[in-house]
């Protein structure tokens, strides 16, 4: 007879709200493991941020989309595409006072904290495109820890940039670049129960979730 131990999926999360003093916007937060995360996407407007499909209602519902340089609080000519920026300390970036941009390692800790099927655990319970894989339906998550990962889509780079993948992906910038052209991010997608951590062009526009300074 063998015994297999399984990590507890969820502890009762510590949650609440806080106010961004810059614009009086109120946000939900949730504590997952030893980290306190925003439980909704940042919606602080900058000179360079975008709304999905250029529709202000989408910013109200789903938050702003940011380039990597904008997310880390730097100019495109300082940290944008083809400019290298490496941060040795926590970087506040576009986040409210008392909060910071998550590093690649902090996303790794989040993934470890929620355990297997982390994407399903973090994804919202509605809004995701249903994906049928040989009779197994993917798409909506169970939002077991209150992260509420909503499928906001992205805005892609280049001369013919466009909004795309609404209801299919949620992409969150980290504060960690991979090289002068790309930066790391966390990805949730419709067709997977997993968390994916990858890197992509810095001049794409993705969502931001901030982590509370401890």
How many beta-strand segments?
Answer: 12
Order of strands across the widest beta sheet?
1-2-3
End-to-end gap: 44 Å
The percent range for helix content is 10-25%
Number of domains: 1
Q: Report mean pLDDT, rounded to a whole number.
A: 93
Q: Compute the gyration radius: what is it?
A: 17 Å
Describe this structure in words.
- This protein has 214 residues and is of the alpha+beta class.
- The chain has one domain (15-212).
- The chain contains 5 helices and 12 strands.
- The strands form 5 sheets. It has a 3-stranded antiparallel beta sheet with strand order 1-2-3.
- The radius of gyration is 17 Å and the shape is globular.
Task: Give the topology, please.
Blueprint lengths: L13 E7 L4 E8 L2 E4 L17 H7 L5 H4 L4 H4 L19 E2 L3 H11 L3 H5 L8 E3 L2 E3 L15 E2 L7 E2 L4 E9 L4 E8 L6 E6 L9 E2 L2
Antiparallel strand pairs: 1-2, 2-3, 4-12, 5-6, 7-8, 9-10, 10-11
Question: Keyphrases for this structure?
Answer:
alpha+beta; 214 residues; 12 strands; three-stranded antiparallel β-sheet; 5 helices; single chain
Compact summary:
The protein has 214 residues and is α+β, with helices and mostly antiparallel strands. Helices cover 14% and strands 26% of the residues.
